[in-house]
Amino acid sequence: MPPNAFAARRRRVESSASGWWSAVVGIVLLGLARVPVAGQESDPGTRLPAVTATWSGVPLRTVSRRLGELVRRPVILDRRLDPDARVTLDIRDAALVDVLEQIALPLGASSVVLPTSIRIVPGRAAATLIASDAERTRAIAALPLVSRRLAGRRAPWAWDDGARPRDLIARLADESGIDLAGLDDIPHDHLAAAELPALPLAERFDLLLAQFDRRIDWKTARSRSERLELAIVPLPRDVPGENATVVVAAGAVRGGPSVAPPPRPGGSRRPPAGMPTWTLEVAAPLDQLLLTIATRMELELELDREGLRTKGIAAAEIVRLSVKDVDRDTLLDRIVTPLALEWKIDGRTLRVGPTSD
Question: Domains of the chain, with CATH numbers?
Answer without folding.
Answer: 5-234 (no CATH), 254-354 (3.55.50.30)
